[in-house]
Structure formats: structure tokens, C-alpha cells
Amino acid sequence: VPWATGSRQGPVVWKMGIHSSAGGAPRVSVIIPTYAGSRHLKPCLAALLDQSRPADEILVIDDASPPPTDSEFLSREFPGQPALRVLRNPANLGFAGAVNRGLAEATGSLIALLNNDTRPDRHWLERALAPFADPRVGAVATRLVRMDRPEILDSAGDGYTVAGGTLKFRSG
Predict the structure, then answer these.
(1) The pTM is what?
(2) How confident is the model at residue 111 (pLDDT cuts 50, 70, 90)?
């Protein structure tokens, strides 16, 4: 079962369309919304760029961070990464708005959503994608363990309400 460490909402992967990478494998986009989160982004992106099954596209949505912006940090710390796209919102749209911007720009048929303060295990994406071999699977929520105490389960998935609220399952 895939693992990621972090302190907030759990990683989720879901189907969006029918795009494929070379060789017919599903194309995977990872969306990371961020606001003034550069201290978290470096370990998160380093872990994503070292996956056993790399993402085809990593979209970091800078939700109008104040200077120095997360966009500036990323262009300095991760230059020349072909899978990495940084999009800056001109105004702060909040978490849902940043995610929606990422969804509108994503090219993958499978979408993974990560918070900027998560650090996925090396096999996280490979294992998260395995259930999609069954055509009846439309979404996967992965386990989230605490960053400060990885032996403790932080979450086994989150739920979202129509009003935009979140629910955490099996916390602590």
C-alpha cells in the first residue's frame, strides 16, 4: 500500500480521461497547490522526482504567494526539470481554486493531488497506480503517516463535502 508522510490532507489519485504516455501507459499528472510553502516544497518535489514510476507532469500551483514567491523558489531550486510546470495565480484563489487551476491545466488521464507539505515514499506513485488495472476503480486514497512520527497513521483518506469542507478518516 502506498505511503506518504505529511501533516494535512491525504494524497488522492483519480481518473480524468483517456490520455496515454508513450507505450500506452496512462499519463499521470501530480497537482500541488501552494501558498508561501517553499520550506515544504523542496523535500516534496525531491521525493516526487525520485519516484520508481515518475509522474509525467508535476504542476505546482503558486496561489499568489507573497515575495519571495514559491514560483521564484522553484525556478531557482529546480531548474530544467522537464516534468515540472509552475503556474502562478494572479490572486489567491484558496485551496479549491488552486486545485481547480491545476485540473484545468493537467494533461494526465490520472491525477494525483498532493499538499506541499507531503513527502511521498519512493514507490508511492507506482503503488497508487496499481489498483487502476481494474477498470472498475475510479479513485484511490493513499495512507498518510505523520512526518514527525512515521509509525503513526495520520490519515487513511479524506472526504470532501459539497460545501467545500473536508473530512478526515481514521486520524491518529
Answers:
(1) 0.81
(2) very high
